[in-house]
Fold:
Amino acid sequence: MFTHKVWNDAELSKMVEGGVPFPMLSDVGGDIGRLYGVFNEGAKVENRGRFIIDPDGVIQGYEVLTPPVGRNVNESLRQIQAFQLVRDTKGAEATPSGWRPGKKTLKPGIDLVGKVWEEWKVSEADD
Amino acid sequence: MDNQQAAGCARPTASAAATKSEESVETDQPNVTAKEMSMVHVGEKAPDFEAPGYQKGAFLENVKLSDYAGKWVVLCFYPGDFTFV
Structure:
């Protein structure tokens, strides 16, 4: 916790105005990391785990990287937007590969079977 | 959040909020036990936990995942302060 404060005050607040807006938690000993399966027992540190948890407390997605490689915040936000759309439509719409807000969704159902190739083009997988 | 805590030398530790069956398993090495660790699963409830924290100039105690019920949550783990995200 004390190093969270020093890191926030000395460095992060220079990157984000006002400092980090969300709680930075302490997991000394790695119990929470083990609970989620991201604790690196060899190095005794947390791997770079990222979990998207919906309003019902259900894990919708996760990504885990070893320490040297950083995550892509925009991809996390894209996934949250996609999960929110699915939730808002109560599952009537799904987001195919490459979806981002404004792009076409698919409507899963019997009419879509065998027709995804008509509804969705490979080029839409690109940004 | 109203659970601010004065800075002090006591070092509260994190813990699982819900009881979880944490079995001790024997490893290949004799006289060494390790806690069994398995990955959580998508589509399943995120295990609740509580941990002390820091936010905007204040120390917090007992931040619980379940405090955020009804909201979308991104839970990020990282190896250490002064690294990157």
The first helix of chain A runs from residue 2 to 15.
